Each structure stands twice: as C-alpha cells, then as structure tokens.
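Field log, afternoon session.

UNIT: design team B
ACTIVITY: writing a sequence onto a fixed backbone
BACKBONE:
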C-alpha cells in the first residue's frame, strides 16, 4: 500500500506474503495446503465428468459428449462448492493459483 503524510516522503508497505512468497497465505478461509487439496478435488470432479460422459456417449457424437461433460462438470463443481462453502469464482481463483504455482496435477 502506498501512503504519504503531510511533509513526508511516500512510503510503500508490502504485505509479508508478497515480500516473502514462502509464507503461506490464507485465502477464502483456507490455508495453502487446504487450497491444494481443494484444487485436487476440483480437477478430480472435472475428470469424473469427462470419464462419465465418454462412457455414456459414443466418441463419434462429439458435440453430445461435450454437452454432457459440461453438464456433469457443472453439477459436480456446484456440489463441491456447496460442500466446501466457496463460490465458483473462488474455486476458479484456486485453480488459477494452482496453475501459477505449478501445483501438481492429482493422480487418478
């Protein structure tokens, strides 16, 4: 944060987690390790939707399969969001954080 008092030089206050990224930051009420677990659960839900759609609809029906993947993913993501008390936007932010920090993809 940038601040200046009358007659003084501007000062920049940088949050500890920015100066030292090794300090885990709590977001959305969850620690970084908890967010990593949430990240895995989000990816597993996406994979589950894809697998179920591929089993249900022949691969020659690409558009139908894609629609089912989207529908199932929406269903599973909404259920997860409700379970962990996060919005879908917050879950998206966790996925972005995982990608930015190179969190490992979960193993099936």
């Amino acid at each position: 944060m940038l601040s200046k008092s009358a007659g003084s030089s501007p000062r920049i206050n940088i949050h500890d987690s920015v100066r030292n990224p090794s300090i885990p930051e709590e977001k959305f009420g969850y620690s970084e390790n908890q967010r990593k677990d949430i990240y895995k659960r989000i990816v597993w839900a996406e994979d589950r939707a894809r697998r179920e759609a591929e089993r249900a609809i022949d691969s020659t029906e690409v558009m139908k399969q894609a629609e089912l993947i989207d529908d199932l993913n929406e269903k599973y993501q909404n259920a997860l969001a409700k379970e962990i008390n996060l919005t879908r936007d917050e879950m998206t932010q966790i996925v972005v954080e995982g990608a930015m920090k190179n969190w490992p993809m979960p193993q099936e």
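LOG NOTE: Helices lie at 16-19, 32-56, 62-84, 88-100.
NEXT ACTIVITY: expression trials, pending approval
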